[in-house]
Amino acid sequence: MNKKLLKTITYSTIIAICLIAVSLLAFFSHSGAFAIDRFMINKMQAIQSKGLTGIFAFITSFGSVYSFILLTALILIMVKDKKIGVVLGLDFVVAALATVYIKFTVRRPRPIGVALIEETGFSFLSAHAMISMAFYGLAIFLILKYVKNKPLKILFSSSLGLFIIAIGISRVYLGVHYFTDIIAGFCMGLVVCLIFTLTYDYIYLKKPYIRKKNDKN
Which end of the chain is flanked by fewer CB atoms within 10 Å, N or C? Predict the structure, then answer.
């Protein structure tokens, strides 16, 4: 089977599974917190400390809208290949808009009486989790595609992967989201990331062929 076709089928299957999972979580979230949600809240409360709260408050700031705007601007300024900044910016915008739509469609209240920081809006799904997975996930794809130094490639991509997970954990620790909000956010963020990955490959893998064809003419 053609590798490109196999990749498309694999990604499409993952996207379908993620969409089904998010739909089920959204539907059943109206019944209240899941058992896993209550379990995770209790576990996080058991390990809370002033130092750990400060660390997670710092980590969670990298999943805010302002952080992604700043990162996109820095990438556009510092990275020579401007299409990288453009595609990451578009990825962020799509993920942010999708998050707002889902939040106002599901309208799940945030956890009550456990928040360590002030947050507004609905709980399902986590914007921090979704946009982090979409943005940093696409950044991992671009690193694997363009960074030639193998040790640096592994270091940067694995670090970003752990960072995505840490942002998700921070939201549950800080008491502003249920665990299932994070899982749903990661799933939808992965959907956006994979769609952009497929689109990016499709557009930019076509360019050499187009240039070659034009040269012949």
Answer: C
Q: What is the pLDDT of residue 215?
A: 44
Closest CA to 88 of 206, 215, 207, 193: 193
Q: Tokens 């942002």 belong to which residue? A: 167
Name, in order, each residue with C-beta under 8 angstroms of 11's C-beta and a sequence gap of 6 or more: 194, 197, 198
| 176 within 8 A of 129, measured Cβ to Cβ | no
Q: Considering only CA atoms, which of 110, 112, 128, 129 is closest in space to residue 120?
A: 110
**Three-state secondary structure string covering 119-146:** CCCCCCCCHHHHHHHHHHHHHHHHHHHH
Distance CA 143, CA 78 (A): 15
Distance CA 119, CA 103 (A): 14
Q: Are 133 and 200 in contact (CB under 8 A)?
A: no
Question: What's the pLDDT tens digit per position in 43-75?
Answer: 999 999 999 999 999 999 999 999 999 999 999
- CA-CA distances (angstroms) from residue 216 to 205, 207, 208, 210? 18, 14, 13, 10
More confident residue, 198 or 185: 185
In the chain, what are the domain boundaries? 3-23+50-212
Amino acid, res. 187: C
Round to whole Å and give the CA distance between 142 and 90. 14
d(CA 200, CA 194): 10
